[in-house]
UniProtKB/TrEMBL annotation:
Top-level division of the source organism's lineage: Bacteria
Pfam families: Creatinase_N, Peptidase_M24
Secretion signal span: none
Organism: Stenotrophomonas daejeonensis
InterPro entries recorded: Creatin/AminoP/Spt16_N (IPR029149), Creatinase/aminopeptidase-like (IPR036005), Creatinase_N (IPR000587), Pept_M24 (IPR000994), Peptidase_M24B (IPR050659), TAT_signal (IPR006311)
Domain Creatinase N-terminal: 70-204
SUPFAM superfamilies linked: Creatinase/aminopeptidase, Creatinase/prolidase N-terminal domain
Name of the protein described by the UniProt record: Peptidase M24
Cross-referenced PANTHER family: AMINOPEPTIDASE (PTHR46112), AMINOPEPTIDASE YPDF (PTHR46112:SF3)
Residues annotated as domain Peptidase M24: 212-414
Length: 432
């Protein structure tokens, strides 16, 4: 998904979500009623969506033992990097290490990971109870009152770990004002990017993480197929997004999709313009859902009715490009090689050079965030390792006509790579 919620233009994302939510409310109400065995509401949903089964009961949460292993791995990396302590604020890395889900506000809440020993949590004193409810291990919570300086408290904790004049890592998504507050409170410390620690842990997925991602991606694919079967002429992009929301409600997982129709598929990020479905024109679904915080990201290009030969030809080229990237993936290969493999197929078919029609990188890392380390793009010479996960999403976009994109999640294995979901085999049978 190239229009991830954390990277897309905020206004575009707000407008799309608002439109989709408004359109989805009636169907969501029907779906919730259907899950409560209301036969009349159930009958109001399309048959393909009624056929979806709940999957939430199959979610196996990350265990406390695995989170403890993550801390041990982080401390090993901190030792290698000579980092005495790492500060992590609200966000996905805080959840990854501690299990806490926290809003990033002006009030400081975070965790300090020392090079050895147990973590220390810093939070407003009035949030102590909620903090203790959420953390999965450790119980050292330091609270600060509203008239106190939280950065002085963080500095005190860091000095206790011997980092007052040592090396302190700051997790890369911590806002600048917060980083500056910590730096000003600890003027003799050396501050570094904690990326080698956070990415060093998170970019390699465990079997438990892979199971959650596999479930999320399989659910998204099932939702897309159900919605495709429910498409009808005259539907707007909001109507289709509402079907997606209703379908996810049946599964018990929370998810959504951006939807674009016809000529608006020619832009990777689509358009805010009103769109309406007519037979023979392409529709692109792009989005995902979450299973215990781990996300899916799948794109499918479909057509209601008979696709034209031009769409069919472009679809086949994009499918070949996606396969070429998959075939190129194995441990020890440079990340840019996957982009090059897919781009060569597209360029050789006449849709080049470079970014002319395939206008974005091949893919992005994925896990708890829809976009995370690393990126499959020209110039990225980092090497693939077993356990890494990426989107494999080539596309061809022909201005004012149409676009085709296919996206599945690529998992690097010990001796190659796999996709977490079956590829879309053809525009005539997009789900096999």
């Amino acid at each position: 998904m190239e229009n991830d919620t954390t990277h897309a233009h905020p206004r575009r994302r707000f407008l799309r979500n608002t439109l989709a939510l408004g359109a989805a409310l009636p169907l969501l109400g029907q779906a919730r009623a259907a899950n409560g065995n209301d036969d009349r509401a159930d009958a109001a949903l399309p048959a393909s969506i009624r056929a979806l089964q709940p999957v939430a009961q199959r979610v196996v949460p990350i265990t406390v033992a695995e989170r403890a292993q993550r801390l041990a791995r982080a401390q090993q990396l901190m030792d290698e990097q000579r980092i005495d302590a790492v500060f992590i604020g609200a966000g996905s890395s805080l959840t990854y290490f501690t299990g806490m889900h926290w809003w990033n506000s002006e009030r400081l809440t975070g965790v300090i990971l020392p090079r050895s020993g147990a973590p220390v949590y810093v939070t407003p004193e009035f949030e102590r109870g909620r903090t203790l409810e959420q953390i999965k291990f450790g119980d050292d919570v330091r609270g600060w009152q509203e008239d106190e300086d939280p950065y002085a408290l963080v500095a005190q904790v860091l000095r206790g770990f011997g980092a007052g004049s040592g090396s302190v890592g700051i997790e890369e998504t911590v806002p600048f004002f917060r980083s500056k507050g910590i730096m000003d409170a600890l003027p003799h410390a050396r501050f570094v990017d904690a990326w080698p620690v956070t990415a060093g842990c998170r970019r390699i997925k465990s079997p438990a993480e892979m199971a959650l991602m596999r479930l999320a991606n399989q659910t998204t694919l099932a939702v897309y197929e159900a919605v495709w079967k429910a498409l009808a002429p005259g539907m707007t992009e909001g109507d289709i997004a509402a079907l997606v929301a209703a379908a996810y409600a049946r599964t018990g997982l929370r998810g959504s999709a951006d939807v674009n129709i016809g000529k608006y598929t020619a832009s990777p990020h689509g358009s805010d313009a009103p769109q309406r479905l007519v037979e023979g024109t392409p529709v692109i679904f792009d989005g995902g859902c979450r299973a215990d915080g781990y996300t899916s990201d799948i794109t499918r290009t479909v057509v209601l009715g008979q696709p034209g030969d031009d769409i069919r030809r472009v679809f086949d080229i994009v499918l070949q490009a996606q396969t070429a990237a998959l075939d190129a993936a194995r441990p020890g290969v440079a990340m840019e090689a996957l982009d090059a493999a897919a781009r060569k197929v597209i360029t050789d078919a006449g849709y080049g050079p470079d970014y002319r029609y395939f206008s974005h990188r091949l893919g992005h890392g994925i896990g708890m965030d829809m976009h995370e380390w690393d990126y499959l793009v020209r110039g990225n010479k980092h090497l693939l390792e077993p356990g890494m996960t990426f989107s494999d999403e080539p596309g061809i976009y022909i201005p004012e006509k149409f676009g085709v994109r296919l996206e599945d999640i690529l998992h690097v294995t010990a001796d190659g790579a796999e996709l977490l979901t079956p590829q879309s085999p053809s525009i005539d049978h997009p789900f096999g």
